[in-house]
Amino acid sequence: MARGEIGRWISGLIPVDTLVGEAYRKWRPLVEESFQFLFSHLSEARLARKVQEQMGLPAGTPPEARLLQLITKMPGLQKLGQVLARNRRLSPALRQALTELENGMSDVTFDEVRTIIEEQLGGLLPEYGVELVPSIFKEGSASAVVKFTWKRGRGVFKVLKPYVPECFAEDIGLLQELGESLRVSDVRELLTEVGQLLAHELDFPQEQETLEAAKRMYRSSFGIRVPDVIRPLCTDKITAMSEESGLKVTDAFPRSPIRRSRIPDQLIEALIAVPLFCREDVAVFHADPHAGNLMYDETSRELAVIDWALAERLSLESRRQLVLLVAMMILRNEAGVRDAMHALSNRPGRGVIEAHVSRFFEHLAPGDSPGALDAMRLLDETALAGVHFPSALFFFRKSIFTLDGVLQDVAGSQVRIDYVILREFLTRCLGSFGMFHAPLQWRDFAEMEWNALLMPARLVW
Fold first, then answer.
1. Domain finish residue from 78, 105, 132
2. Does residue 258 form part of some domain?
3. Residue 198: inside a domain, yes or no?
4. pTM above 0.85, yes or no
5. Spatial CA neighbour of 8 closest among 36, 37, 38
6. What pLDDT digit, counting tens, does each position of 164-212 carry?
7. Which CA distances in Å does 362 have to 292, 366, 374?
């Protein structure tokens, strides 16, 4: 059977109608074309295994079960499903299906993980009194998590799956080729994001450094926890850290609306305000704040932010321009929004920023109240139109959208990110008698005050 025929045969086993609902039927041809492309270009050895696995399944196997089997040991497709599951523009039913698909992945055994731990750490295990809990606690697209006890308490090993280094390069290459062949800008951006996410997840030493940097940044923040890195038990394939207790943040206080209503403020403080208003020249921020990475301890009322594999850093000046961008958006200052976007861009497209900003404000009704999400969407639109922004800013935008989805799951649509950010900034500024105002400069305050005075006139105009 020719490769193209195999690709069509596999896509026939899992009808595209089961993957893409009726509301998104216009995307079905694109999904089917992508499916056939990926499996007709897969390496011979991996493709042969896929065909053998599919032929070994009973004739009546549901398409969903076939799909789960099909994407085992394919970190690229698994990560693609995770990214799509966090897209608020998809229907709730499709997002729920993708979330179940992510949670249902299981393609590595405890014995395989234990072998890697023993090979990597050897005599350190008895030296530090390490005892493994004999089961896999969690499993992601690139790693598996195993709990353990040691002489200083409880911890977890995050271990790189054994097949991932071999499959990673091929998956990334296939996704890049697919993105170039489809000629759909949104899809190309999505596939690029998947590649960047996977690259971050394979860099264990970088994650360990990021955890330590985050620990320093949050050291004076009440109610926010970051796992401690257990350095002697870390390698380039293993990150050892303290075990953090708690529920997934979206499951906290289900029967106490009052207590639950306080959680959004903690989330916004931890994931936006603290890094944004950090006084250091460079601040680290969590770039993948989905609910699975946010644990809430109902007893201590503490938020634990885990899994820092995907994190980025923003300079003091970049954070200053981001704050100004949001402030000028709230104040409806078209020129201020345009200036901040120019300052954030690497290579601004000629006239692109001006055109997009003008179009946004032309369609803004007098009663509308633009804010942080509008600013991030505007950055997204201009990036798709050809304006180049730093990669860290790309991840910051994505983290804002992901966090907005979590906030809606926790408290509905009434939470305004920008209002909480403003309150956190004013609290810090007033608490320090005006001495603490990073990342803004004194002249920024004068400009915002002047714009606030002009805002009623803008609304009338």
1. 105
2. yes
3. no
4. no
5. 36
6. 888 887 888 887 787 777 766 666 666 776 777 777 778 899 999 999 9
7. 39, 10, 14
Answer with the one of 49, 76, 105 that is the final residue of a domain.
105
* Of 68, 79, 85, residue with least CA distance to 167: 79
Q: Which domain, by its residues, includes 8?
A: 3-105
- Contacts of residue 121, Cβ cutoff 8 Å, sequence gap at least 6: 130, 233, 235, 238
Examine residue 419 and state whether it is found in any structural domain, yes or no. Answer: yes
Distance (Å) of CA 282 to CA 277, 318, 392: 11, 9, 12
CA-based torsion, 205, 207, 211, 213: positive or negative: positive
List the alpha helices (DSSP H) in 224-315.
257-261, 263-268, 274-276
The DSSP call for residue 416 is -
CB 372 within 8 A of CB 326: yes
CA-CA distance, 138 to 286, in Å (whole number)? Answer: 20
| Total domains in the fold of the chain | 2
Sign of the Cα torsion 186, 187, 192, 194 reads positive
Closest listed residue to residue 18, CA positions, set 62, 77, 70: 62
Please report, for residues 153, 297, 302, the alpha-carbon distance to residue 226 in angstroms, rounded to integers and kept in the order given.
Answer: 16, 13, 10
141 within a domain of the structure (yes/no): no
Sign of CA dihedral 363, 276, 140, 244: negative
Environment class of 264 (CB within 10 Å of its CB; exposed 0-12, middle 13-18, buried 19+):
buried
